[in-house]
From TrEMBL:
Family statement drawn from the similarity comment of this UniProt entry: Belongs to the cytidylate kinase family. Type 1 subfamily.
Stated name of the protein: Cytidylate kinase
Binding site for ATP: 10-18
GO molecular function, one term: ATP binding
Catalysed conversion reaction: CMP + ATP = CDP + ADP; dCMP + ATP = dCDP + ADP
Encoding gene, per UniProt annotation: cmk
Keywords: ATP-binding, Cytoplasm, Kinase, Nucleotide-binding, Transferase
Classification via InterPro entries: Cytidylate_kin (IPR003136), Cytidylate_kinase_dom (IPR011994), P-loop_NTPase (IPR027417)
A cellular component annotation (GO) from this entry: cytosol
EC number: 2.7.4.25
Record-level GO BP terms: nucleobase-containing small molecule interconversion; pyrimidine nucleotide metabolic process
Domain Cytidylate kinase residue range list: 6-218
UniProt xrefs under Pfam families: Cytidylate_kin
UniProt-annotated location(s): Cytoplasm
Length: 222
């Protein structure tokens, strides 16, 4: 049985979440979606009427918010101050503002502390995000960095949203690019593979193929 920690980092639209859930289910491990925590923090910021670009106000607002996420791969629990925001965190408004909120160092410190505490009490776990292998869990058993071509990522996201019109797919592709550039170029904990990460390219693999590959890596490293 698997007893370690798997980190799964990479840009948007690589199928990270589905893969992370699949791997967790396969390994009988807990699952932590750290993107959901930054998205929940963004809900708190928007609901307070705070400008996501105002770092001080963002930091204060998130510090005062109670952000809760579950660690069970089968159910999605995301709450802000006791209110279920699981559906809202996937909306365009939150998606547009989340990179600005997650670039605020005080927000990162708060959520990283919370992530480490959740992991400490979770046992075997799969943790998904951008900086898990580099910052949150530098001693993880297995670090995976998931990539895919920009076209494959835009197509995957379009499929999830039921979008087929080429001009709408192009808008999605532009949004993915904008968010990744922002996440990769920020000062604090930029998106990049850890030095000891295994890079898995999902462009030509289906979801099950990626899950199988990560499970194989996880069970052979322990
Ligand atoms: O993975 P997801 O698309 O839900 O992440 C949303 C945003 O949260 C990312 O674009 C990034 O700005 C931020 N994020 C982060 N660090 C993480 C996870 C997510 O900065 N560990």
């Amino acid at each position: 049985t698997f007893r370690g920690q798997v980190t799964l980092d990479g840009p948007s639209g690589t199928g990270k979440s589905s893969v992370a859930r699949g791997v967790a289910a396969h390994l009988g491990a807990a699952y932590l979606d750290t993107g959901a925590m930054y998205r929940a923090a963004t809900v708190a910021v928007l609901d307070a009427g705070v400008d996501p670009a105002d770092a001080d106000a963002v930091a204060r607002t998130v510090a005062a918010a109670r952000i809760e996420v579950g660690t069970d791969a089968a159910t999605e629990l995301v709450q802000v101050d006791g209110v279920d925001v699981a559906a809202r965190i996937r909306g365009v408004e939150v998606t547009r503002a989340v990179s600005a909120v997650s670039a605020v160092p005080a927000v990162r410190r708060q959520l990283v502390d919370q992530q480490r505490a959740l992991v400490a009490s979770a046992g075997p776990v799969v943790v998904e995000g951008r900086d898990i292998g580099t910052v949150v869990l530098p001693d993880a058993t297995l670090k995976v960095y998931l990539t895919a071509s920009p076209e494959a990522r835009a197509q995957r996201r379009a499929g999830q949203l039921g979008i087929t019109a080429p001009d709408e797919v192009a808008v999605l592709a532009a949004d993915l690019r904008r968010r990744d550039e922002f996440d990769s170029s920020r000062e604090d904990s930029p998106l990049r593979p850890a030095a000891d990460a295994v890079v898995v390219d999902s462009t030509d693999l289906d979801q099950q193929g990626v899950v199988d590959r990560v499970v194989e890596l996880a069970t052979s490293t322990v």
